[in-house]
């Protein structure tokens, strides 16, 4: 029996495999006398070297190559990449292309958020170990999630040819313009989905979500007119307002020994990207119907409670479905789905809002348009420092007197709020080879 | 009642075996076919409202390349905590569909042992023939 009071006991918790997140990571926690001494979100997913793979490849290969980085957000990788390469080539895509890139992006948000809310997060808040256990008692929730996910995948397929690692995107536009008939068939399915997503906003806000107010810096894109997705300036609630070109002047990545993903800081501090940060910084860019659904929740926004990320995803799901419906209603095929590319040496930057937050790309290309250098900063590595900070604050606020299983579960819930994609975050490891020749 | 045969795979290497088995299946009365590219949870949707489904997928069960395994739902051990955003595999999707109560009354699974390199043509043809025979046996 411990000599200490329960909240003063020595705690050593290891969660060797994080469930319901993508990729291989672990949580290690050591506490003594009621304080956390050491907390590590260990990411040991092997590095993937995609930036090196891109070097010397033609601009033509880049969209299909970067799509392979992630099975859940390939569109985001393609969109940030084509933006950057088009800037390098001095190419401005047509309005048709920009509208349909946004439409395809809506599909990715819809499928990613629908899956996260229903299959990954909801079991935490309804008291189940996983979605399979939850499905026996709440099949309707799983049905709704799967139906919305399918709709999102079909939107990606509409322009991308397939939903997993789509192939329809190219620098300058799309390889192919879908038919009006296909657009109408998809549009017909959106009315019910919008209604479902509207109900989902109220449903998520009505869950017994933990109250855990924290102080953090929100970072997201901000667009003149739209809720940010495909375009915008990078802003924060601390006064940052920059173009994608200036990202590297403010955001610094660094290694830590326990992670194969880089940590990212803004002016030396952790920061948050993703649905909650996006919503906090863009409440005035929501459509009237989404805003009304948000207001009806009775929650206060902007929110400092990371557990409101679940509600933010439901809100963005509703917004993306309405936006997809609007874009599909206005859709008209074209004979020129892409602009001709004239490669030239240069560099370009791209920043778009992946479902999990800002995804930044930077390329230098030679006069044939071959990649000289590539740099990709995905949202999960940007959130990694914030996740550790959040874990420390959340677990101390939750109370270290709880038993190990409760602390372990709370830690996993905190991590899942970020919907981390560890596989995406681990392609940055720099390798120094000591050949003993010096 | 008809039977739906679903080939599952991806365009990469031997993971195309499930597609190939279905695409080369000679027409059989009352049998429809479908190929799916890494469907994840979408497999549930594809199976919904079917009476009888046969899934064909490349697998690694440790046997020699080309080995054909005829399996039932009861043969599958579902990893109940591995539902992630990216990799809800066939086993996880079947477990989820079963929990939702939406799987067809009859589900058969055929697994083809894949190797790390393409198997010789002779072994491949033999494996495909055994798969086609297994499908005919099940529906007869």
TrEMBL record, chain A:
It comes from the Bacteria. It holds the Pfam family NiFeSe_Hases. Fe cation binds at residues 73, 424. The keyword Signal does not apply. Its cofactor is Fe cation; Ni(2+). Coiled coil: none annotated. Ni(2+) binds at residues 70, 73, 421. Keywords: Iron, Magnesium, Metal-binding, Nickel, Oxidoreductase. PANTHER family: COENZYME F420 HYDROGENASE, SUBUNIT ALPHA, CYTOSOLIC NIFE-HYDROGENASE, ALPHA SUBUNIT. This is Ni/Fe hydrogenase subunit alpha. It comes from Ectothiorhodospira haloalkaliphila. The lineage of its organism: Bacteria, Pseudomonadati, Pseudomonadota, Gammaproteobacteria, Chromatiales.
Automatic annotation (TrEMBL), chain B:
Pfam families: HycI. Coiled coil: none annotated. GO terms for biological process: protein processing. Keywords: Aspartyl protease, Hydrolase, Protease. It comes from the Bacteria. The keyword Cell cycle does not apply. The keyword Protease applies. GO terms for molecular function: aspartic-type endopeptidase activity; enzyme activator activity. Belongs to the peptidase A31 family. This is Hydrogenase maturation protease. It comes from Ectothiorhodospira haloalkaliphila. The lineage of its organism: Bacteria, Pseudomonadati, Pseudomonadota, Gammaproteobacteria, Chromatiales.
């Amino acid at each position: 029996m411990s000599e200490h009071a329960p909240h003063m006991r020595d705690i050593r918790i290891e969660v060797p495999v994080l469930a319901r997140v993508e990729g291989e990571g672990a949580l290690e926690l050591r506490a003594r006398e009621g304080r956390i001494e050491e907390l590590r979100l260990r990411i040991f997913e092997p590095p993937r070297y995609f930036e090196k793979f891109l070097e010397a490849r033609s601009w033509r290969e880049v969209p299909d190559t970067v799509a392979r980085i992630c099975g859940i957000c390939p569109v985001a990788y393609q969109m940030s990449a084509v933006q950057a390469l088009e800037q390098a080539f001095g190419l401005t895509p047509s309005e048709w292309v920009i509208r349909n890139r946004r439409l395809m992006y809506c599909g990715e948000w819809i499928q990613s958020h629908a899956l996260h809310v229903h299959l990954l997060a909801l079991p935490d808040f309804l008291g189940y170990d996983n979605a399979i256990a939850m499905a026996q008692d709440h099949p309707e929730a799983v049905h709704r999630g799967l139906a919305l996910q399918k709709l999102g995948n079909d939107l990606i397929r509409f322009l991308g040819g397939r939903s997993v690692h789509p192939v329809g995107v190219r620098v300058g536009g799309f390889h192919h313009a879908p038919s009006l008939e296909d657009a109408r068939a998809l549009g017909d399915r959106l009315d019910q989905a919008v209604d479902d997503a509207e109900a989902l906003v109220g449903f998520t806000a009505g869950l017994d979500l933990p109250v855990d107010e924290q102080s953090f810096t929100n970072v997201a894109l901000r667009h003149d007119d739209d809720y940010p997705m495909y375009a915008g300036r990078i802003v924060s609630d601390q006064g940052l307002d920059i173009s994608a070109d200036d990202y590297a002047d403010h955001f610094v990545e660094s290694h830590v020994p326990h992670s194969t993903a880089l940590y990212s800081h803004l002016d030396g501090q952790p920061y948050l990207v993703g649905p909650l940060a996006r919503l906090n910084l863009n409440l005035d860019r929501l459509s009237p119907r989404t805003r009304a659904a948000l207001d009806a929740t009775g929650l206060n926004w902007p929110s400092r409670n990371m557990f409101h990320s679940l509600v933010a995803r439901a809100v963005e799901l509703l917004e993306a479905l309405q936006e997809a419906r609007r874009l599909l209603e206005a859709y008209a095929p074209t004979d020129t789905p892409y602009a001709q590319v004239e490669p030239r040496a240069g560099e370009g930057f791209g920043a778009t809002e992946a479902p999990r937050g800002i995804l930044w790309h930077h390329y230098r290309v030679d006069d044939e348009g071959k990649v000289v250098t590539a740099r990709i900063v995905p949202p999960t590595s940007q959130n990694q420092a914030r996740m550790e900070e959040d874990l420390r604050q959340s677990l101390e606020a939750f109370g270290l007197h709880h038993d190990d299983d409760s602390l372990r579960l709370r830690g996993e819930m905190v991590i899942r709020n970020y919907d981390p994609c560890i596989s995406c975050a681990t392609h940055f490891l720099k390798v120094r080879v000591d050949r003993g020749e010096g | 009642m008809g039977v739906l045969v679903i080939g599952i795979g991806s365009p990469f290497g031997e993971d195309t075996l499930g597609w190939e088995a279905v695409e080369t299946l000679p027409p059989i009365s009352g049998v429809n076919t479908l190929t799916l590219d890494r469907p994840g949870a979408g497999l549930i949707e594809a199976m919904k409202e079917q009476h009888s489904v046969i899934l064909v997928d490349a697998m690694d069960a440790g046997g020699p390349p080309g080995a054909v395994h005829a399996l039932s739902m009861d043969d599958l051990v579902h990893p109940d905590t591995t539902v992630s955003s990216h990799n809800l595999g066939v086993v996880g999707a079947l477990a989820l569909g079963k929990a939702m109560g939406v799987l067809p009354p009859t589900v058969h699974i055929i697994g083809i042992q894949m190797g790390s390199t393409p198997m010789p043509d002779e072994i491949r043809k033999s494996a495909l023939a055994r798969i086609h025979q297994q499908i005919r046996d099940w529906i007869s």
